[in-house]
Design brief:
With about 750 residues, the chain is of the alpha/beta class. Helices cover about 50% and strands about 10% of the residues. The protein has 5 domains: about 140 residues, Trna Endonuclease, Chain: A, domain 1; about 170 residues, Rossmann fold (3-Layer(aba) Sandwich); about 70 residues; about 110 residues, Arc Repressor Mutant, subunit A (Orthogonal Bundle), CATH 1.10.10; about 60 residues, no CATH class. The strands form 4 sheets. It has a 5-stranded parallel β-sheet with strand order 6-7-8-5-9. A 4-stranded mixed β-sheet has the order 1-2-3-4, sandwiched between helices.
Length: about 750
Amino acid sequence: MFELTKLGWSSFQQLCLSITREILGQTVESFLDTYDGGRDGAFIGNWKAIGQEGLSGKFVIQCKFTSRENHNIIASDLEDEISKVKRLVSTNNCDSYILMTNAGVTGKQAEEINKQFQDAGVKYFQIFGKTWINQQILENKRLRMLVPRVYGIGDLSQILDERAYAQTRAILETLREDLSKVVVTEAYRKAIAALNDYGFVLLLGEPAVGKTTIASMLAMAAIDNWNSSILKLDSPEKTVEHWNPNEPTQFFWIDDAFGVSQYEEDLVRRWNHIFPQLSSMLNGGSKVVLTSRDYIYKRAVKVLKTSVFPRLLESQVIIDVQDLTIEERRQILYNHMKLGRQPGSFRTAVKPHLESIASHKRFIPESARRLSNPFFTKNLPISNYYLAEFIEKREDFLKEVLKNLDTDSKAALGLIFIRKNHLQSPISLEVTEIDVLSRLGSNLAGCITALEALNGSLVYYSTGEGQPFWTYKHPTIGDAYSAILSESPEQIGIYLLGVDISDLFGQCTCGNMDLENAIIIPESLFPEVMKKIEIAKSGPYINNAYQGWTLDSMVQRFLSYRCSREFLSRYIDANPDLLETVSQPGLYLSAVSEVGLAVRLYEVGLLPEKNRKAFVNCVSNYAIDGQDLFAMDNEKIKTLFTKSEFTKLIDRVREELPSKLENVRTDFEYNHREEDSAEDTMRPFIDTLEVLKRYYGENFEIDEILDEQTRLMNDWISENTPPEQDINKTEFRSLESMETVKTLRSIFDDVDE
């Protein structure tokens, strides 16, 4: 059932080690040199074999791996071992001998082999073949978690129940090929520990280092071990929306939580908004896995409210997945080369160079995937120099691959890009998209043919939520395509014709705003962008990704974070009413789009003085009335105040707000909704008290009022919080760091067999 021949000799030894620990209940003393002494592992102690009396003494474990499918082991296969066994017996280092093999074992051959070893002086001999090993994998969920590659080399329908299998097939089937090649890294073990201790983990790393792969391993283990429902989502709102308090085993997985290829501040603020609910989910037993590119998280962490979600302050939940040991790099490269699409001649030619490739400072798992696929190595000379360039300049190399594609293939990648890496199948094009294809020299039929040819190399045909779609094989392909677009004003113009307005807002900047992987719209195309925005504003707009967000707020956020002064100046000239809008921001200042735009316009000198004063007056009144004190708490808003204006605000809040706090608190209590937790209802009031404490905590009278309001608030929260139910929280058992297989033999020894 499990294709054990795909493991390779080193991974098979690790599997045998795991079986010895988990199934046979023995801690192996060490794995020894393959060429020294005839022992892959050993232990001293007591052991009761299945159907046997208890045994004691010195035990030797030997792993016999074969790359030949359907091979049955015979006595002659072990002739080299017999002389080693005799030497071990003579030196009193072997009482019992356990042989594990991925070959088949017939009853007749088992008898002959047993006699061989008995004649060599072994007191007890046991052979475990592929049938027995398959059965252990089938019956032991933890073993599968220890060796998650088996999910990719086995029949999932035999492991999982019907419901879990159907769900897994929909969510993880696209990763099946990758799962067959995964390596249990230290990052994976740390992620297991984080989920155990905190129910939450954030996986960080540069593109293509294995974040999604580790998340898929965790998801697979959750399905397998607890029959969890796996929810792979794309927004903070959907995370809360799909939470079921009565299902404590839910597993939530959100890739690129703070932006796909660029930092998205509005997305980060939306996470801040749902953090209280996220805490409730985790306290109820749910597990949550987020992934993010490291450079995006470095910007996001400056805005994330760790005070509301303190789990982010725990260093153990934030895991850098790209810190790989040399042994992990070797195993990753071996697995991809062994199970990749390269012919034997290529693997033989590249074999002497694999050690240096794995040791290269810029080696990442994606490097191994590309090297193992002939599509990426068509014109690659096999030498140390060119292979090092292949790894070192991986981004430039990928761009060259895309540039050298035929016209239809380029157009097909462009369609996926326009559809934000999710091109539904069967493909139905908008009129503007048909025009785009025509200008690129292609058509729908040509694109479909190209997609089918590129499937498995640059693109992937997948299914999600019952709907098939085309997507990039890896997000770095979208990054490379974006870079190519940015280099060609003509192509950017064509792109603007077909791109959806929400994708324009998420992928582009008008002028250079120093956002990684953004498509920079040149000044010559500013009129086209403005025209596209006006067309979108003139009609109804529906986009599930921005459910609850108006098009106006999307426009304002785009102007705030993705537009140069030159574009803003032109836009305001065409839309002067916008200045009045930003002068009167709505409540919840931390979330409304007008605040960011007011700050941006002031920074670039485009906010007139009367509008600045109106903004200051509005946010000041919110603070004085106790509705929203964000103006006192946010450094960017403070820049819009003159020194005297801010001093006046501080004085008025001190004089007027304390006496109003009773009414402010009871208003929140009155507006409490049953579906919200009491603490979530009071979160704005908690924030208000914290701000007041920082500013006026040394004032005895005010401090007394704050303490009293805090007490009354906590009493109300306690009275309106139902008692905690006993929840059997799901836990992964911690995974110990595996011993490294100590051997003079290169892991790449049999890579070309």
